[in-house]
Design a protein that fits this description.
It contains 3 helices and 3 strands; from the N terminus they run H-E-E-E-H-H. By secondary structure, it is mainly alpha-helical. It has a 3-stranded antiparallel β-sheet. Strand 1 and strand 2 form a beta hairpin. The radius of gyration is 22 Å and the shape is elongated. The chain starts with 23 loop residues before the first helix and ends in a 6-residue tail after the last helix.
């Protein structure tokens, strides 16, 4: 048996799809809150009552863009970048506490806002 040639089969190879931006059809679709079904809005967004991401009312085979995941990833990266120098400054007793306050404020307020 010749193993030098590698063939890909549909059963063992699943192509990864890149995140697609919202299409005009997505923006015209009706979205609703999973916790408050009475909340209905045209296009993606957040629930005005609980802040959860709205989900499309009609289910499709396409994987929708997960705006909440994109937002949380951005918050994680920015908070992590600010936390590294903050941790270093916290170990240095010679530095004034103002630097710690300046770096910690966006991590706590902006990074933790959804929670």
């Amino acid at each position: 048996m010749d193993h030098s040639k590698h063939t890909e089969h549909a059963c063992c190879h699943v192509p990864q799809k890149a995140a697609q931006p919202a299409t005009p059809a997505d923006l015209d679709a009706i979205y609703t809150c999973p916790m408050h079904p009475e909340v209905r809005k045209k296009g993606p967004g957040t629930c005005p009552k609980c802040g959860m991401a709205l989900e499309p009312e009609e289910v499709t085979l396409e994987e929708p863009v997960n705006h909440e995941l994109i937002d949380f990833n951005r918050r994680l990266i920015v908070s992590s970048v600010l936390t590294v120098p903050l941790a270093i400054l916290a170990m240095l007793e010679m530095m004034p506490n103002l630097y710690q306050f300046i770096l910690a404020t966006p991590v706590v307020l902006w990074g933790g806002w959804p929670f």
